[in-house]
Design a protein that fits this description.
The complex is a heterodimer of chains A (329) and B (290). Chain A has 329 residues and is an alpha/beta fold. Chain A has twelve helices and 13 strands. Classes of the chains: A alpha/beta (329), B alpha/beta (290).
Chain lengths: 329, 290
């Protein structure tokens, strides 16, 4: 169905536009078939990128509720070799994203979290597309709750030699589902920097977390800080497939606020200035170009402004709790 | 001490009656503790106090109230699934299980819910109402309850309690009114020493083999420091006052955390020590690795 001529990955301008326009008339099934047929080096990635572009910009997706539902699970290229996968779930506060991330890493891929048990087959299919035949070597779990590790069984089943890295505050034998041998799970203390599969990766304390054994992960190559539950946000359906720079006005303080109030009820006790000081310290020490939350799309522009919005959201939540007197109960 | 133990090592589960109709279903590592806790306690500046001078262990507990409508408090972790099911079988026999009450959705607390429901198809899940997106956590069909809500089990009556100290947003504590049993999930942990045969003991029994008030305060502090690092950003007086109010509000006669041995005697004295230990956790230095 798809010509395997390697010239296709290098299409530019009008031809590329025409090809993408053609993709608009394909169904999800036909797109998948196209991906299966594209076997030449680079073709799969080209089709994938084109289809991502289609998903993000096609008016068909926005207008057609069936297609929109079908594409709530999305693959998006964040930057360089970083991809975002996952789905959204609907709820009373709007949509909650449940993402995970893949660093292609020159054919030695690493996953940051691995998706929830919901939509497992869709997530695995999307992961297969991004991996394009390569074998993932590591899963870095921000923590082990189901939305972050629920898909680990499928990952371990598909790639039985995969290694998992978790915080040393997490007890693997009891806090991770027994779906792979314990000697394939390594623990690292917060503050550790390692060379893994040829790439430097730092494992940090998770500053906003809902499980003690949580970690944030920093990839200096892309400047990405993977923040687990931190920096999550509930969002309207219109922006499910948009990165911060594609959302007019960026990620709203209110979106951060609604999510963080739900996720971090301990904020009733917290003096926000103390927490915000540690957040400032982190962002001063690391050259963060992208913030990659699991419960939101990657924030890849104007990081200082978004950090300020998060800090303001945290401050508002803490003040609201005090107004409600929850710290006196 | 009468304890029925199912399995051994990483999967063992012990069952002990606490008071008439309430059973402790608990896993701890025993002789394997040092091997699995070395990385965990290794973060402390005084790690040797937990891995050498004392080699400590840490339980993961569920509780079963047997009444006209039996209720299970938390479910244990996947690694102990088979032995937890065996323990339930031993305790319930042919009886039905009416409720599975979930404190929060971390694996050691909630991960066996589906397996237990398969064994007891009539069992209804109960979880905290203050949240959304329950399907993500496998709780889409659960009964949602709030602090102050009461469920009558027969002779026992459980009241949902506002979880003062929590990690996950969908959390709750529980108080059983007839026996004064307070379950506080991840707060208020003590540690025990397998080498002193303290596995499955109540804290008053541990006192006979060297457990002291000083150790208790340290253990509560260290566990809270790990469990709730956000305490570093709080006011110690506010936190201590909250503990004081808790024990004024509830007539606690049995104190049952998920990850500590049970306190069934002298609860008033231990309430004061819990307040002291939690205040100490706030004051412990916490340097975040950023």
């Amino acid at each position: 169905m798809f010509p395997t001529d390697p010239v296709y990955p290098h299409l530019h301008g009008g031809l590329r536009f025409a090809f993408r326009k053609a993709l608009e008339f394909l169904t999800r099934f036909e797109l998948d078939q196209l991906l299966e047929d594209a076997t030449a080096p680079g073709d799969r990635l080209f089709v994938l990128e084109a289809s991502l572009d289609w998903r993000k910009h096609s008016s068909l997706v926005g207008a057609n509720p069936v297609l929109r539902k079908e594409f709530l699970g999305v693959i998006q290229k964040v930057a360089d070799d970083l991809y975002q996968i996952g789905e959204c779930v609907d709820g009373r506060h709007g949509h909650e994203a449940v993402r995970f991330y893949v660093l292609i890493n020159d054919g030695r891929p690493m996953l940051i979290d691995c998706g929830s048990q919901l939509y497992r087959s869709e997530s695995m299919k999307e992961l297969d597309q991004v991996l394009d035949g390569s074998t993932p070597e590591y899963v870095f779990l921000t923590h082990s709750e189901l939305p972050h590790s629920g898909n680990l069984e499928s990952i371990a089943s598909n790639w039985p030699h995969i290694h998992v890295i978790v915080s040393s505050i997490l007890l693997p034998y009891i806090e991770i589902a027994p779906v792979l041998p314990l000697d394939q799970i390594d623990t690292v203390p917060p503050g550790t920097t390692l060379q893994i599969a040829g790439r430097e990766v730092s494992f940090l304390d998770a500053l906003l977390k809902d499980q003690p054994g949580s970690q944030w992960i920093y990839d200096p190559k892309t400047g990405t800080l993977f923040t687990g539950d931190g920096f999550g946000y509930y969002h309207p359906a219109e922006v499910c497939e948009q990165f911060s720079d594609e959302v007019e006005g960026g990620i709203r303080e209110q979106w951060f606020s609604t999510y963080h109030r739900d996720a971090f009820k301990f904020l009733r006790w917290v003096t926000p200035e103390k927490l915000n000081e540690v957040l400032d310290d982190l962002f001063q020490r690391r050259d963060v170009k992208i913030v990659a939350p699991i419960h939101g799309n990657a924030i890849r522009h104007d990081i200082p402004e978004h950090v300020d919005r998060l800090k303001q959201a945290v401050t508002s939540i803490c003040m609201q709790y005090r107004k409600e007197g929850l710290h006196l109960r | 001490m009468s304890v029925k133990v199912f399995g051994d090592g990483l999967s063992r589960v012990g069952v002990r009656e606490i008071t008439s109709g309430i059973f402790w279903i608990t896993h701890c590592l025993g002789d394997h503790a040092k091997e699995h806790f070395s990385d965990f306690f290794g973060l402390l500046s005084n790690a040797e106090d937990y891995l050498g001078n004392r080699i400590v262990d840490y339980p993961f507990s569920a509780f079963l109230i047997i009444d006209e409508k039996p209720l299970l408090i938390d479910t244990g972790a996947p690694a102990q699934r088979a032995n937890t099911l065996a323990a339930l079988d031993y305790l319930l026999g042919s009886r039905a299980l009416d409720y599975i009450w979930i404190s929060h959705i971390e694996l050691p607390h909630a991960a066996n819910a589906a397996a237990i429901q398969r064994k007891y198809p009539g069992a209804e899940l109960i979880t905290a109402s203050d949240g959304d997106y329950y399907a993500l956590h496998g709780l889409e069909d659960a009964m949602l309850v709030s602090a102050g809500d009461i469920i009558e089990l027969g002779k026992h009556s459980i009241e949902m309690v506002d979880p003062l100290f929590l990690d996950h947003g969908k959390s709750q504590w529980l108080y059983e009114r007839t026996t004064g049993f307070l379950f506080t999930a991840d707060w208020g942990h003590n540690l025990h020493e397998p080498s002193r045969n303290q596995c499955f003991q109540f804290v008053d029994e541990m006192e006979n083999s060297g457990y002291t008030d000083e150790l208790f305060v340290d253990d509560v502090a260290v566990n809270a420091w790990y469990q709730f690092p956000w305490l570093a950003w709080t006011d110690p007086d506010e936190i201590a006052a909250a503990v004081g109010r808790l024990f004024k509000q509830y007539d606690v006669r049995i104190f049952a955390p998920s990850h500590g041995n049970l306190i069934r005697k002298d609860v008033a004295r231990y309430a004061a020590l819990l307040e002291e230990g939690t205040r100490k956790a706030v004051q412990m230095p916490h340097r975040f690795a950023t």
